[in-house]
Amino acid sequence: MANLSGNAAYYVAAILIGAAVGLVGSAFHLGVDALAHGWPSFLDHTLGLDGVTLYAAAAVVAAVMALVALWLVRRFAPEAAGSGVPEIEGAMEGLREVHWRRVLPVKFFGGLLALSSGMVLGREGPTIHIGASIAKGVSDLMGWTARDMRGLLAAGGAAGLAAAFNAPLAAVLFVIEETRRQFPYSARTYIAVVLSSIASAIATESITGNVPFMLLVVPDVPMGMYPLFVLLGVILGAVGVGFNRTLVWSLDTVRRIGLRWSFYIFPAVVGLVVGVLVFALPEATKGGEILAVELAKEGRPLGILALIVLLRFTMTMASYSTGVTGGIFAPILALATTIGLCYGTAIDTVMPLPEHGLQALAIAAMGGLFSATIGAPMVGVVLVMELTGSYGILVPVLLTTIFANMVAQWLGGRPIYEILLDRTLALEAQASETPPAAPAPSPAAAQPQEAR
User: What segment(s) does the record annotate as region Disordered (predicted)?
Assistant: First the structure.
């Protein structure tokens, strides 16, 4: 009877956490949307700026937003840099500590500024970290054991992903597949994750509506196209490994710049460039969820699509390397969609694709690149289904996703969050072994300022 009572309290806590995360996550997303559209509209329509003056003003605004976002991270919560997912996985493994009191405000307001500036970052990372931080606060309040606390961290993180994309099933699978090494699996913790995801989805839907986040329905494709999806998966497997390695190289390069001169130089440059691109080439800015749907429907020329792929790849690396708050789920999905469109458009010039064939390849590419970079193929499949509503092409998406994962493993690729966590731990160990050459900085400033 005592065990039943304990389970009931645990489940109630999971539901309350999920609902809170859904509300906070929705407020975060609405705030990002409002600010991201608000400041460009103010410069363009309210102030009536144009030409060089408009570009200069936009560059300054975006740079200031990026710098303030980075200052919040470096000054108050260094662990809030980047997506935060490696931090949560590290905490579930007992390697990291979730300082929820400082992470929550920095992740919310720092993420609001960073994403609204136009940098190519995703909203899912901040909401996952926010969700886990809320769960840690509840766990501290209730005084639960370390195992129960880790279970609630997973529940809060899942609720954050559910709120980000209105994808509760993918959120549950994310815990099972992505955090399989760290999640303290039991009936109690598993049920808590499911309940928290459901509660988050209900809260999110009550505010934003029950519509797929990237609605792009493709009914079905002929079986004769299936080999094209296999080949697409092979290509994306290689792209995913290259993506992860380039991201780590970018982080290391920007860190060297920061150590030699200042950690604020590179983010300032990225902000200036992003501000100009918001008006000059908006396709190269922001998370890209809406862009992905628009591109799939518009049918742009191959050369333009290839240019967008190059620009978004470059801006994703640059944006994430700044050390501000922001995720990589959404940028990966948008990049994958554009790669799929490039692939399909190139094939269409040789042999005409069937109706909806181009859109089907674009949707399947999302799952493929997600699987190759994140290392969670089933999450990629279900996430794509929930995001687009295209359940009719489940088999093609499965083919693309699993072959991408197979090729990524064959090439020696590792899940990006695993790589980032190992990198963070290695940098901290290195910093602790190096004697300071000057008076020690404050505790917050002494921690590695890295994007997770």
Answer: 431-452
Domains of the chain as residue ranges with CATH: 8-208 (1.10.3080.10), 223-417 (1.10.3080.10)
Altogether, the residues listed in the chain come to a count of 452
Tokens, residue 405: 């994962």
Distance, C-alpha 407 to centroid of its chain: 23
pTM, full prediction = 0.91
Q: Distance between CA atoms of 33 and 194, rounded to whole angstroms?
A: 28
pLDDT mean values, one per 10 residues, the chain (452 residues): 68 96 96 96 93 96 97 95 91 90 96 96 93 95 89 95 92 88 86 96 91 81 94 98 97 94 95 96 89 85 93 96 94 95 94 89 96 94 92 94 97 94 89 59 44 49
